[in-house]
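Changelog entry: the 3-dehydroquinate synthase record was regenerated in this release. Current contents:
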Amino acid sequence: MAFRSFPAEISKPTAWPPPLRGGNAARLPVNACAAMTCSVAADGNRRSKLVWVWTESRQVMTAAVERGWNTFLFRSESRSNDLANEWSSIALITPLFIDGKQLFDGQSRKIASFYEVSSPQELELFQPNTEEVDNVVINFQNEWQVIPAENIVAAFQGCNRTVLAVSATSTEAQVFLEALEQGLDGVVLKVEDIGEVLRLKEYFDRRNEVRNMLALTKTTVTRVEVVGMGDRVCVDLCSLMRPGEGLLVGSFARGLFLVHSECLESNYIASRPFRVNAGPVHAYVAIPGGKTCYLSELQAGKEVIVVDQSGLQRTAIVGRVKIESRPLILIEAKEHSGNETYSIFLQNAETVGLVCPREGNQTTIPVTSLKLGDEVMLRVQGGARHTGIEIQEFILEK
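Regenerated C-alpha cells:
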C-alpha cells in the first residue's frame, strides 16, 4: 500500500454542481486499470479494464489499494468528503465525487455522467449518438443486468467513450466484464466486504495468465507399452479447441505431457473439438494459478488450462467429465539434455494423441502410432505438491 508522508486535502468545489471547464469531459483516471484478456479463444488481443471502488470501509479501501485499484467514488456530501480527505491523507488515492447525474474529480472537472437505470427507456437515454459526455457510469437498479450490458457493448462498439457499470459483487463484475465477449470498459465495485475485492483480483489473475507463454520442452519417447484396463477420464470443455491445443496431463506433476484434443477429423468417428481424452483418474492436470489437480477431481464448472504447441495458454470451463474403463498404454519420455524420466498413461485408441514440436511436419502423434525416438512436448515444473500447490521439499516419485 502506498502511503503519503503529509495530509492532503481534497479541493471539493464550494458550489455543486461545479462549473465545467471548456465543456469537455476530463480524462478518466488510468491508475486503476487491470489488464485482462478480452477473448481467450480469438486472437489473444488484450484490453485494459478499469476498476473503481465505491465503499465506506477502510479495510476494503486498503485491500483495493494494495491490489493496484486506487480510484474511489464518494457521494457529494459532507460525510463522504471527510472520508475522502481522511483516506487521501494516508494513501495515494484518486477520489471522484457523485453529484446527481454527474461525476467530478477533486478539481471540479467533469469525469462522466452517472445514470441510475431501471428500465429499457432509461437505458436508451445515453446512446452514442445522443450522449454529450464521453464517459458513462451505469448503476442498474433491477434484476436485469446481462442483456442490458450486452446492449451497451453492442451500441458503444467502435466509440471512444468509456462505459462502466456498478456491481455489488465480484460475480456481477465478471458479468459486465465479459458481456458479448468484449465486455464493458470497466466496473465500479460497490462493496463493504473485503472478500469481494479479493475475489475480483483472483478473477483478473486467472484471466491474466493467458498473457504468459508456458515454457514447453521437447522430449524423446523412450518407452511405449500396452498395459491393462484402467478408469480413464474424458474432459469435455465449454470451449472448442483448435489443432495443436490440449491439456497438460501426467503421472507426475514434475512433467506434464500436452495431450491433444479430439478436434481432428477421421474416417471412423466425428471430431469432438471440445474433448480431451486425458488419461486415468490418478493423473495430474494443469489448472489456473500454476496449480494441478487430479483428473478424478475435475467436475462441471471447474477451470483448466488449455495450451497449444507454442505454449500459449488460456482458461476453459469444464462442462462434463466422463470416466469409463478402457485399455491403457504407458508412455515414458526423457529430455534431450537430462536423465529424468516422465510418464503418462492414456487410453489405447487412435483418437488419443500427444502434441509434437512446432518445427515438425505434424501436429500430433496418435498413441497407437508412437514409437521409440518420437518427439513430444512436455511441461517441466516442480514436482512437490500440497493440494495442487507447488512447494519446496524433497520428493521421489517413480
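Residues 33-211 form a domain with the TIM Barrel fold (CATH 3.20.20.70).
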